Amino acid sequence: MTVLSDADIEQAMQNNQLGIDPFIHKHLTPNGYDLSIDEIFIRKTDQHIKDGVAVVPPLTWFAVSTKECVTMGPQITSQLWIRSSYARKGILASFGKVDAGFSGTLTFGCFNASDTAVEIPIGDRFCQIVFENLEHVPKALYHERSGTYQHQRGVTLQR
Q: Span 72-79, mean pLDDT?
């Protein structure tokens, strides 16, 4: 596997091998793209926040969905990494791989591990997605294997 550079990402998008919608050029990094927050769900208070600033209480689980819909081509997968500015505030996030063939927004389970409330602005850049080129096309793409979260929009909890 090879990591895609900013130039590789732009080329993959031009060739319809990768989609990021909406695409904001300033969110492009040397080896990835910063995804932004569209919605936050705080289970403890049963709040869905889509505007303004979410205030996450200390020691509280919450979910974040991305504004961007990503569409992974048949030979592209990706990893997710929290932005260090959130890690430094005590936010932990559960990330995994985004499978080849997936299309939709992304939902992350998060935890405010600090002893104070954390303010999280809707629209802020939350994590970086790092795209990787697979050496071969998989035998079955995401939507052919399970597809459980294919085309999801907004915070999507366990199905």
A: 96
Can you tell me the distance from the alpha carbon of 30 to that of 135, in angstroms, rounded to the nearest whole number?
A: 21
DSSP for 90-117 reads TEEEE--PBPTT-EE--EEEEEE-SSS-
**Cα gap 75→111, rounded to integer Å:** 32
- Identify the pLDDT of residue 140: 83
Q: Give the predicted TM-score (pTM) of the model.
A: 0.91
CB 10 within 8 A of CB 61: no
| Residues 37, 47 contacting (CB under 8 angstroms) | no
CATH number (2.60.120.260, 2.70.40.10, 3.30.300.20, 3.40.1110.10) of 2-145 reads 2.70.40.10
